[in-house]
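Exercise: predict the fold of this chain.
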Amino acid sequence: MPLSHDNSPCNTSKIAPAGRPGFRSFKTSAPIAYPARWHRDLLIQASLDPRIEAIEPVPDIIGDGSAFSIIVHIDATRRLITAVREPTVRRVGIIGLEEAVLPRSVVLAEPRCSDARAIWSMRRHQVTLGNRLRILRALEDQPDGMTLARTADLVRGGDIDPTEAVLALACAGLVDIDLRGPLAPSTPVRRRICVSKKSPIPITPGVGTAFSGSDVC
């Protein structure tokens, strides 16, 4: 996977302003505070990753502030994800949890970073009940999924851009969008279904790659 460079649109490390409510998604049970902008990118990508079922914050008392960690659920197994600016930064570590380490350059790798941000920017868009049911019914009839273009063609009415409607459903946890390649008309879209009963998907400890995978959760 290519790594991002300093001129990448996603290369920013602004500190979250005081009083920011924290990150929420359909996979979190409470807001998750994050110190830097790129940590929010990690949370967005985890929310859009089909393998991940839930995201938990790591208690503030753990770690020394040099790394940002979250706990993710994959096939009902809790795993620690630690994001570090440099691979040499001391990791948090929690006894009993397998840990995967993601360098900042991997979290900010393009085009995945900008594509995930673009999808997440649609999270407040309202999709009518008719459009939602039409899309979900069509995807249920296509277990292998449909392209983003074909899915967008199902949207009726002029209140919302058809593609934005599909992206909004991804933000609501109703569909999965495959971000292993650039976001394009041919990007696969699948119905998000129940937790997989297959064996846990391994996350190799050590320096990892950005979230990817086609298994539904």
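Check your answer against the key: The chain is about 25% helix and 20% strand.
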